[in-house]
Amino acid sequence: MDIFCHRFLAGPVRSTMASLRFSSHGLAMKAEGAALNKADYKNKIRYGCVMIFSRIRISLLFGFICTYPVMTLATENGADSYPSGAEGVLAGALPPPGFYGQTFYVNYHASRFVDKHGDSMIPGFGLNLNGVVERLIYMTETTVMNGQLGFYVAQPFFDLRIAQGGQRGDRKGISDTLAAVMVGWHNGEHHWAAAIEGVFPTGEYDRDRMVNLGKNYYTLRPIVVYSYSQPDGWDLSTKLSYSFNTENQDTDYLSGHYFAGDFSLGYRFAPGWILALQGYAFKQLTSDESHGHKVGFRGQSLALGPGIQYQGKGWSLEGKYTTETAVENRPQGNYTWLKLTLAF
After folding, report:
1. Cα separations (Å) of 61 from 28, 142, 163?
2. In this structure, are residues 71 and 290 in contact, taking their beta carbons and an 8 Å threshold?
3. Spatial distance between the Cα atoms of 27 and 233, rounded to a whole number of angstroms
């Protein structure tokens, strides 16, 4: 499912700041069925896990120059905690009982910050994020409503650099922590799961700083993932989520609720290899509020690009490159993702 990724855009305006964040959201792991034991799973699926709940989204706070003192952007500082496009092949399949580790590398580069018409709105804008997210997954032998119970915790580490209007800022360190409880089901070639993910404000934050790695508020995110996977053919996977945010007490700013989803359509073209068209969609559905007053600014984006996965024995490696389009009130750029999954 998904793993932490925080999106970047602007909310409150004081001293013109914005923020970007990675939440990473759920990682989905593959499995043939609930009845499969670990040996069967290794032989049939080769642990080509796909992170089911964790997507990496980064949270950053970048300042707007005083030339734009009245500017407001979708979600506070144009940021959110959804990991845009982190999920891909077999996103809806959870693995057998045991411990699993996942490492994500993400790069996001944007050279434009656009308004609702897609026009650039910040002179000299540039953003570059490099991040690593470590995620530990524990699948139990406990069943809930005939599904398999599991948990995960994920911690992102980011190197974030931004520029705008002749100003530059950068920061390295930890971002907000993600944790979730999940339940997965399997029925032949169909795999699905549901999760509740929480994003906790553990990253550094200072309202007067140009760049922040934390967002300074909590997010509660229900998640549903589904995969239809043929052993020697097509894989259709999707992840759907809806995020509820609490208020940033330091700025009296409440970011609106938003829908976000990942999708992947892939085909097994050789033993162990899957080539796919992947991407994500983001749509803010309620307006932000600043000091109790609705701001009326909402963000959206859509991304598409190629992805590829190789499944080995007890491990898998997946990579993708997506380009954003149909962007409103957010940065517009490109994502590069690498995901390594290991079975302990």
Report:
1. 29, 41, 11
2. no
3. 22
| Euclidean distance between CA atoms 104 and 136, whole angstroms | 12
pTM over 0.90: no
- SS3 of residue 118 by DSSP: coil
Distance CA 75, CA 47 (A): 37
CB 331 within 8 A of CB 8: yes
- For residue 266, how far is the Cα from the chain centroid? 20
Of 157, 169, 100, 103, whose CA–CA distance to 131 is shortest? Answer: 157
pLDDT grade for 295, boundaries at 50, 70 and 90 = confident
Nearest to 76 by CA among 116, 18, 134: 18
pLDDT of residue 80: 64
**DSSP element (H, E) containing 245:** strand 234-245
Sequence-ordered alpha helix ranges (H) in 70-190: none
Are 182 and 195 contacting, i.e. CB atoms less than 8 angstroms apart? yes
pLDDT in tens, 184-210: 999 999 999 999 999 999 999 999 888
Q: In this structure, what DSSP letter does residue 65 have?
A: P
117 torsion bin: left (phi>0), alpha (psi -120 to 50), beta (else): alpha
